[in-house]
Every structure is written in structure tokens, then in C-alpha cells.
Amino acid sequence: MRVTLERSNLLKALNHVQRVVERRNTIPILSNVLLRADGSTLTFKATDLDIEVTETISASVEQAGATTVSAHMLYDIVRKLPDGSEVMMSVGDEAGLKLVSGRSQFSLQMLPESDFPDLTAGEFSHTFRMACADLKNLIDRTQFAISTEETRYYLNGIFFHTVEDEGKTMLRAVATDGHRLAQAQSEAPDGANGMPGVIVPRKTVGEVQKLLETPDSFVTVELSDSKIRFTVDAVVLTSKLIDGTFPDYNRVIPVGNDKEMLIARETFSAAVDRVSTISSDRGRAVKLSLADGQLVLSVNNPDSGSAEESLAVGYGSDALDIGFNSRYLLDIANQLSSEETSFMFADPGSPTLIRDKGAEGALYVLMPMRV
Predict the structure, then answer these.
(1) β-pair type (51-58, 41-47)
(2) With DSSP H G I counted as helix, E B as strand and the rest as coil, what are the percentages for the chain, rounded to 5?
(3) How does strand 320-325 pair with strand 51-58?
(4) Which residue intervals define the domain DNA polymerase III beta sliding clamp C-terminal in the entry (predicted)?
(5) Residues whose CB falls within 8 Å of the CB of residue 76, separated by 6 or more in sequence, listed in order
(6) Which helix (H) or strand (E) holds 333?
(7) Which of 42, 272, 303, 364 would give a disulfide with 59, using CB separation of 3.0 to 4.6 Å?
(8) What pLDDT is recorded for position 119?
(9) Separation of first and last alpha carbons in the chain
(10) pLDDT at 271
(11) CB–CB of 286/279 below 8 Å?
(12) Torsions phi, psi of 133, nearest 5?
């Protein structure tokens, strides 16, 4: 193999694929990236056996061939090369991949291409295409609520499925960790109708989120009962799905909450952030005291002191005291897009419903804390 290409193109492709490679691996080949030069292209492939990312870019190929080298080592080398430089990589009779750029020369240990695992995708039953911005919006609004508790593995991802809502088919994303729930939706693209409900793992969600940052691009999504594939331009990410049943989340979305508070999102978020400075890492509880037209936020920490702040709100129901985890409140506030937010309360022990006035179909459910 002998191939020459621009450092910037090489770095961009390596940045996409090396992220799925774990820093520590008990299987040596999983630390490597597969390089395959053929025709006028160079293809990169990396995997952790759950996710596989490939990217193909243009390159000057003098001799076709393939090998595997350490993904993070190669990325770090290319990252430190000067801007605008050319990089030549070759595999000859000598052991090791030879990399030459200007006056710099490196020889990297290789493992044979034949050892590199292939994540067999199988047949995909559904395919649809949508704007990257639309899918990224669904992920951004729900990702924070993904559970990190490994015992409830079926909550360790985002649940994507289609629903009928007011005569339209919607693609809905839901995530929950048992303490809070986030839901977002957009009109389902052609081809999504009848798709199976799938749980996309947390790590895959993070990688896809980075791929979707390409402005004005489209993503092609292919899925089956066990795999999902995202294609954005020249990057293809294939992932296993979580093999489990997502709980019936509709049962935890309250329908009888009749005490509404309307408040400016930024004002509320900033006030919660200020008073929570005094809260302990373990407790993080902030108390909301509501009376006619006024909200008092208060935090009491025996180790460091107390804090209180009053805000004018739209509220005309009975007086109410309720507590929440301040970090969870801020996480939700950061996802809201409208200037005004609606909180629907029932009582101090029941879940609260939070609606984003600027995003149809977006809602959040937050369990209260004892304060």
C-alpha cells in the first residue's frame, strides 16, 4: 500500500472514526483503525464491536492495499503535523506502516487486515432521509435524560418510534432515567411509517450527535430490529440497538395537573443557578414556594448556609411548596427554546409537567424531591 493525501482531509476522517475506539482494549485489534487504499480512495474503519464507523475520502493511491494501525496513535501524529502538509503512508517489505510528512518520519506497528472484525449489518427493513438539523434537535432535547444506571439497561438510550398525533405521523424521541422524562418529536419522513420502536444506545447517540453538526446536510437512517445505520455525506455509522423493551412512558406523563405557573425561561434558569450555588453535591434540592403571582426559590444547606430569591410569575392557584433537584431543573431549562415556560403542578408528591411553548410536541416530566 502506498497513498498520499492532504493532512487536513486525513485528520478530519480520523477524527470521525477514532472516537469509537476505546482507550483501553483487551482485544488488541480493537485499538486499531483499518486503512484500505483502492482506486483513488482511502477508506477508514473503526469499531468497538457495538458501533462501526467508516469513511471514504479521495486520495492519490500509487499502490492499493490494506492494513491496521493504532487509531489514537495515528490521529495524534496527524494532529501534530503542520497545517497544509502532505502525508504519505506506505507499507512495504519492512514491518510497520511508514508515515512521511516533510522532515517527519514515523514507523507504526501493524496488525493484519484479516484480523479486523466486521459488524455484519444484515437486512434493513426501513430507510428514511431527513435533515440533520431535525434529527439533531430530537437528540439534543432528550439526550440529557438518558439513564446511566446499567442495571436498567433498556433506559440507557433514546427510544425512537412513530406515533399518530392530531392526524399526522410523527417521529418521536423519548428518554428517561426514572427521575425525569424528556420527549421531542418532528414530522415523520417518508419511509419511517411502520418502523419498529428502537432504543439507540447512549454512546451511539453521542457519536451521531457529532456527525449531525454538518449544516444543511441530510442523514439517511436505515434500521432493523437489531441494528441502525446513519449515513451523513461520506461517513457511515452502524450500531447495534439495545435489546430490550422501553417502558410505557405515557403512564408517567401526568394528565390531571391543574396548577399552572408561567415564567420567563431565562429568568427562571438564572435564578435556579444562583440559589443552587449553596446546595450540596449530594442534596442539590431547591424548594419552590408558590403563592398568588409570586415564586420564592430557596436552598438550605446545613454545611454552607442558605439562599433565597423571589420572582414574579403567572400563577393564580392555591399556595404550593414543592422541591426539585436543581441540576435536573437546569438540564430541562437548557433544552427549552421559547421565552415563556409552562409548569403544570398537582401536589408536592406528584410529577410535574413542563412544556416548551416554542416546540410543539416537546414536553418534560420531573419527579419532585422531599425538602
Answers:
(1) antiparallel
(2) 25, 45, 35
(3) unpaired
(4) 251-370
(5) none
(6) helix 326-335
(7) 42
(8) 81
(9) 66
(10) 93
(11) yes
(12) -60, -35
Structure letter (DSSP) for residue 277: G
| Grid coordinates of 312 | 414574579
Residue appearing with cell numbers 406528584: 350
Residues 112, 226: Cα–Cα separation, whole Å: 29
Consecutive 10-residue averages of pLDDT for the chain (371 residues): 95 94 92 96 95 96 95 96 95 86 94 90 89 95 94 96 90 96 95 93 96 90 93 95 95 93 92 88 85 93 90 94 92 87 94 86 91 73
Cα–Cα distance between 173 and 138 in angstroms, integer? Answer: 6
Amino acid, res. 296: V
Q: Which H or E run contains 226? A: none
Residues whose CB is less than 8 angstroms from the CB of residue 281 and which lie 6 or more positions away in sequence, other chains included:
none
Name the residue type at position 12: K
Rounded-to-integer distance, Cα 341 and Cα 335, Å: 11
CB within 8 A of 282, min separation 6: which ones? none
> Rounded to an integer, what distance in angstroms lies between the CA atom of residue 352 and that of residue 362?
14
User: H or E element: which one contains 79?
Assistant: helix 71-80
